[in-house]
Write a structure and sequence with these properties.
144 residues; mainly alpha; Arc Repressor Mutant, subunit A; 6 helices; HTH_MarR-typ
């Protein structure tokens, strides 16, 4: 039987490797960065949202959200306008092209997830979800 410390290090290494691989493949599958996809999904669920609220929802700094929105606006996926009652507030919404992009990304995301979990039974998926939830909880309580 292998040393428990060696097994734990291998688990940790495999988790890091899996995370990097999933992020890379998922980004390639969707053709966009995870942050941009998250911005588009937030906008998909709201008719219109203030840029500052969006920035808080996706938890990135103001300059980064502005940069992403400018690029998405240049691509015709989002539109921005100043709020009539308060010119300091910028409102953001998806364009029709943006809505179509999200619909396509949802299908690509579904296909990616199905392929990733291929070969896992429903009960194995439940067990995996439980284990990952416990790992996530443990990580959140690690004292640094």
């Amino acid at each position: 039987m292998r040393d428990n410390c060696v097994i734990q290090l291998q688990i940790f290494y495999q988790l890091q490797k899996l995370n990097n691989n999933v992020n890379s493949k998922f980004e390639s599958c969707l053709g966009s960065s995870p942050t941009r996809i998250e911005i588009l999904h937030q906008l998909y669920n709201a008719d219109e949202i203030s840029q500052s609220t969006l920035q808080k929802e996706i938890n990135i700094d103001n300059a980064a959200v502005t940069r992403h929105l400018k690029q998405l606006e240049a691509a015709g996926l989002v539109s921005r306008r100043k709020k009539a009652e308060d010119n300091r507030v910028t409102l953001v919404s998806l364009t029709n092209s943006g809505r179509q992009e999200i619909a396509a990304s949802l299908q690509a995301k579904k296909s990616f997830i199905e392929q990733t979990l291929s070969g896992f039974s429903a009960s194995e998926q439940e067990i995996l979800l439980d284990m990952l939830s416990r790992l996530s909880k443990n990580v959140s309580t690690v004292e640094i």
